[in-house]
Amino acid sequence: MSMCIHQILIRLMMSAGYLAINVQLNNSVDSSLLGTANGLAMSITALGRAVGPTIYGISYSWSLKNVEDTLKGNKSLGFPFNEYFAFLLIGLSSFFLFLLGLRIPKRFNKRKINAEENPLIIKAS
Fold first, then answer.
1. Are 108 and 24 spatial neighbours (Cβ–Cβ below 8 Å)?
2. What pLDDT is attached to residue 26?
3. If you average pLDDT over every residue of the chain, what do you get?
4. 40 pLDDT band (50/70/90 cuts)?
5. Cα separations in angstroms, 105 against 19, 67, 86
6. Residue 42 in contact with residue 26, Cβ under 8 Å?
7. Which tops the pLDDT comparison, 121 or 29?
8. What is the 3-state secondary structure (H, E, C) of 52-93?
9. How far is Cα 55 from Cα 72, in angstroms, rounded to an integer?
10. Can you tell me the distance from the alpha carbon of 55 to that of 111, in angstroms, rounded to the nearest whole number?
11. CA 45 to CA 40: how far, in whole Å?
12. CA atoms of 69 and 82, how far apart (whole Å)
């Protein structure tokens, strides 16, 4: 039962994250470029979903091989390169993305409205 709750919470947080990214993306471009921006974002997302598990899977496999070599009597590389290496990489990349997210300008919090797109806005000339 607790695993179901755990999975629900993970999916909820992932959905909230994707929603926040899409809102920020749509607020950052003009409406004439929305299709291009969303297409590019989806392509980068697909690339990340394909490459991410591969990179972290290979690093985890390599770190386990390092631990296995230690059990055979070979010299170990030590803490950062043992079975925790892939998780350390995930943590570091998450922290880097967090710092990158702090640099998002506040102007993306509101949608751009052009007078040509919205007839209710009257231009003062």
1. yes
2. 87
3. 84
4. very high
5. 18, 44, 31
6. no
7. 29
8. HHHHHHHHHHHHHHHHHHHHCCCCCCCHHHCCCHHHHHHHHH
9. 26
10. 36
11. 9
12. 11
pLDDT in tens, 47-91: 999 999 999 999 999 888 877 777 777 777 778 888 888 899 999
Tokens representing 111 are: 């949608």
Query: Is residue 117 helix, strand or coil?
Result: coil
Q: Quick count: other Cβ atoms within 10 Å of Cβ 63?
A: 21
Q: Any idea what DSSP says for residue 1? A: -
Whole-model pTM: value is 0.65
Residues 36-45, mean pLDDT to the nearest whole number: 92
Q: How far is 108 from 29, CA to CA, in rounded Å?
A: 9
pLDDT-based confidence at 117, cuts 50/70/90? Answer: low
Which DSSP state fits 78? -
**Using the 8-state DSSP alphabet, how is residue 110 labeled?**
S
Note whether 54 and 46 are within 8 A (CB). Answer: no
DSSP 122: P
